[in-house]
Amino acid sequence: MKIRLFFVGLVVFFSCATIWSDFFSLEYPAYFPATVYDFSKNPLAEPKIELGRALFFDPILSKDSTISCASCHSPFNAFAHTDHDLSHGIHDSIGTRNAPALFNLAWQNSFMWDGAINHLDVQSLAPISHPAEMGESIENVVQKLQHKAIYPSLFQAAFGDSIVTGEFVLKALAQFQLTLVSSNAKYDLVKRDEAVFTEQEQKGYEIFKKNCNSCHTEPLFSTYKFAHNGLPIDTTLNDFGKGAITKQAKDSLLFKIPSLRNLSYSYPYMHDGRFRKLRQVIQHYTSGVELRDMASNSFQNTISLSSNEKTDLIAFLLTLDDKSFVFELKHQYPRKILHPKK
Q: Could you give the domains of the chain?
């Protein structure tokens, strides 16, 4: 069974069976929790989603028109990137964090590794304005879009007005990102009684439930809360996570817990991309936690796993890869929109 949200104007109805709007339906499984995003304030509509998709892939959002959202969030990497540990921006700038994967955003109410942004509708402002990412102002973005031939008509179709505004830009970007739902991995097929785990995957699942589920809670495989997982600080980056935002000692080295879905596509791992392999991550949690006394409660006790158990755990984690999501054509570069004459 899947869930549908029906949008009629600004009224939202729930029924058993996918998310629908007057223009668009967004499916997610019935075993997913309720979304936290308020769709009544930005109802899904196909023209808005297509506009957001065009904006997401268009480097015009950056100061020198070299960096798009997709530069760091590639659809083929579950909207993360794998070619470098830290995000890269204009003028060959290097950021301070690994670009997180983007999916199942309707179930999240804080964004960025440090939780600095608390609403998807304004999240895009952060990378657009960051000097080491896009280095642009929303005011300049609006002016550039207004004067690019394809955009006034796209904004007219989406919002009933050909005048580009910052609010419309951000809401359209949010619309596209809300459609990035990953829910068709082997794990999901098993949940829907359409497949079964192998013996090894089942063993790994039991290990996962015993040792990992408190932070990476199914079916989203994250609580999307914040934790200190015992990683020693990178003395070059000196990134204190949420503590740098709140300026409170209790938040020092707290980072947002990422989802474990699509790990095969979204390496390297951790906020600074220090681990490229899953075995390195598991090694950290079994014998590499250096700051155990400072770590969150879930990491106070040592996790003991044999070599075979580690292999079993990885076998289960690989059942969270959603190939259909990663290669979904509707998530890829919108050539017909951005290059209508070619």
A: 40-182 (1.10.760.10), 186-321 (1.10.760.10)
